[in-house]
Design goal:
globular; seven-stranded parallel beta sheet; Rossmann fold; six-stranded parallel beta sheet; 14 helices; alpha/beta; 2 domains
Length: 400
């Protein structure tokens, strides 16, 4: 059966969502996949997106922006945009003879437009939530209004809902009575298979490593880490960042100094080597961000990689966030869930001096990586859901 996948971000984008989608799509016959986006992502080097459609941006009235009516006009434009996009998606579903449509979070219009298109064509609709659909629309009142209004309708009537973690699963069950399928943001574990014996650099430097984007969801966690390093008075401890952000932008956010080493972005195949050569892998989430609810339910793509590396993970995140809850429950990382540099400094010292702790963390991390983050298992679960038998009635749940 051919499945249409609607997403703001598609492979070969190296964003978290693009990477996860590529991992889920790999190994699938490209003729069974139809990719749909408002952005022209181009042909991926792996040859995945054979059938890729770029749909037009939403239809909108643009007059009157200087009249103080912008919120009202935007509230009117959103439903018009949904119907306009639904027509485009429905045409693609018919042309490609798709048997199902999967829509991902990202663009506000994608989920409701794909839902309407699926109903018009008579195929099942699946929602794939990389983050919370309504919480993510925290800036614009009109978008927040429509997302909050549409969310229960879309999710309750979907043939299936995919979420990346247990926290978001629980939230949807409690708020909307929806049974979601948990498919963690998984990783190919084959580069991590060999035990990381004697891979840590022997030059005397202590490397705390972070690989990934840095933005509002991270800033104050980095501030706490740098203050903890300063308090330790150990110049050999340095924070190595592998991120697209510039040194100037980091400095503007108060992230810099002699303890920070900023590297250029490295190819994906080099990331396992960098992570495995670390003394500590840092997993931060902000305590004071513009979107605390989104931080709570978000699922970083690097967690699976960190677990696979079998190196000690230092989590600095709010206590109710998925990262903190997961690593605490499975004892696969050291969790500092209070914004206190002194506690952070103690945690770093404990990790560096306690070899038994280091070994135990690595063993449990690898167990969790294999149990929850192996891409082969996740890929099978995803395709069994969206390309398998369609349930006669969408199941409502009392528990996940």
């Amino acid at each position: 059966m051919k499945v249409a996948l609607v997403s703001e971000v598609l492979p070969p984008s190296r964003s978290g969502q693009g990477i996860v989608l590529q991992r889920l799509l790999e190994g699938r016959d490209p003729r069974d996949i139809c990719l749909v986006s408002v952005y022209p992502w181009g042909k991926d080097e792996s040859g995945l997106p054979e059938g890729q459609y770029e749909i037009a941006p939403r239809f909108a009235y643009n007059r009157g922006y200087g009249s103080g009516l912008s919120p009202l006009r935007e509230a009117f434009n959103i439903p018009r945009g949904i119907h306009h996009r639904a027509g485009q998606i429905a045409g693609i579903l018919r042309r490609e003879k798709c048997g199902a449509v999967v829509a991902c979070t990202g663009d506000l219009l994608d989920l409701p437009a794909a839902f309407l298109a699926a109903r018009r064509v008579g195929v099942p609709f699946y929602a794939c939530l990389f983050d919370h659909y309504s919480y993510r629309e925290w800036i614009f009142p009109a978008k927040r209004f429509w997302a909050t209004l549409l969310e229960p309708l879309l999710l309750r009537r979907a043939a299936g809902v995919v979420v990346p973690n247990e926290v978001l699963c629980d939230d949807l069950r409690e708020r909307h009575g929806v049974l979601a399928t948990i498919i963690h943001n998984s990783v190919d574990l084959s580069p991590y298979q060999a035990a990381p014996d004697n891979v840590v650099a022997s030059d005397g430097e202590v490397r705390i490593v972070y690989t990934g984007a840095i933005y509002e969801a991270h800033y104050d966690a980095f501030h706490a880490l740098l203050e903890a390093i300063r308090r330790l008075r150990r110049p050999e401890i340095r924070l190595h960042l592998y991120s697209k952000i510039s040194a100037g932008d980091l400095a503007k956010r108060g992230i810099g100094g002699p303890a920070v080493v900023l590297h250029e972005v490295i190819p994906p195949e080099e990331i396992p080597r960098v992570q495995r050569r670390s003394n500590i892998l840092f997993l931060p989430l902000a305590f004071n961000s513009p979107y605390p609810k989104l931080v709570k339910t978000s699922s970083t793509t690097k967690l699976g990689e960190y677990l696979g590396s079998r190196r000690p993970i230092l989590v600095h995140a709010p206590p109710d966030s998925f990262a903190s809850r997961y690593c605490r429950a499975h004892e696969c990382g050291v969790v500092v869930d209070r914004r206190d540099p002194s506690i952070m400094a103690d945690a770093i010292e404990t990790i560096l001096r306690d070899r038994d702790l280091e070994r135990g963390l690595g063993e449990r991390a690898w167990q969790r990586a294999c149990a929850d983050f192996d891409i082969e298992t996740s890929r099978k679960r995803f395709w069994n859901l969206v390309a398998g038998p369609v349930p006669a009635v969408v199941q409502m749940a009392k528990s996940c």
